[in-house]
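fyi for ur records
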Amino acid sequence: MSYYLGIDVGSISTNLVLMDENYSIIHKIYLRTEGQPIKAVKAGLLEIRDKVGIDSRDINGVGTTGSGRELAGVVVGADIVKDEITAHAVATIETVGRDVRTIVEIGGQDSKIIILQDGIPVDFAMNTVCAAGTGSMLDNIAGRIGIPIEELGPRALQSSEPADIAARCAVFGESDFIHALQVGLPLNDVIAGLCHALVRNYLNNVGKGKDIQPPVVFQGGVSENVGVIKALEQALGHEILVPENNTVMGAVGMCYLAKRYIELPILEKAPVTVPVDGRKSAVALETIRKTTFGGLNLVDIEFATKTFKCDGCANTCRVVRAYKEKDIMASWGDRCGKWST
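which gave:
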């Protein structure tokens, strides 16, 4: 059996999915990034090595996505690196269906909307600087009132009259939340109001001007919150679909993309001559791709990053370098390609 590994490194969570050649998910991992993407990726690889018990040689392809995709790709030796829009779109089309018209994705600090037509992304948008329409606002408030974030959704469903909470930004939202409690509003009503505020912020910013048509698929960490699901359904006026692997869809998409990439044959640049009807003709020779994955034992290797400012021109780019032990593996961040190439 051959396996494919998808890795999604985000600002809040790092997700890994191991899929077999028949597109069955063998193992999935949801970890907190905690500002240390390399450590999180290594922790995921360690879990796969120790709990799943497969050999590194059985992993035929690896893909990375997310805000930390470049760094993760260098560390693990990824075969393919893609943006989150592509990864989430592929996962949704392959696991939910080509009839999906809208993808709503809300994570810890990032949120995005993808508009599909006949299984093809035709439009998208992502949040910019505000975190009010993301899970970080829920996380901060849950910590402040001492309630596990997993309980916010069920409590919101118990509300009959959600409080009016500001949706302008995370700071105002948290301030309004505390003020509503101080004036005596029931906690469940205030939590429900928070869920509605998050949805309003998302639709007014990320979803502004987008043609949101059903079927709508909701994914990302916040899609675990049943209170937000209900608020989104009420705002859009129709049912919301939450896929089975809603919190790791980026990693799922990269499994599909890694498998497609590896199975795509390589055409030799220099053609070979073979006899055809007694004459010689130029024919391109196909060769099979082999993964560049460094193996599960990467967990035993030290990786690090360093930065420096290039003064070669007026751009003064901040260049990032990745090191494996003491050796430079890759560089990126320069506009001209002086260091990255």
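The two ends are 36 Å apart (CA to CA). thats all i got for now
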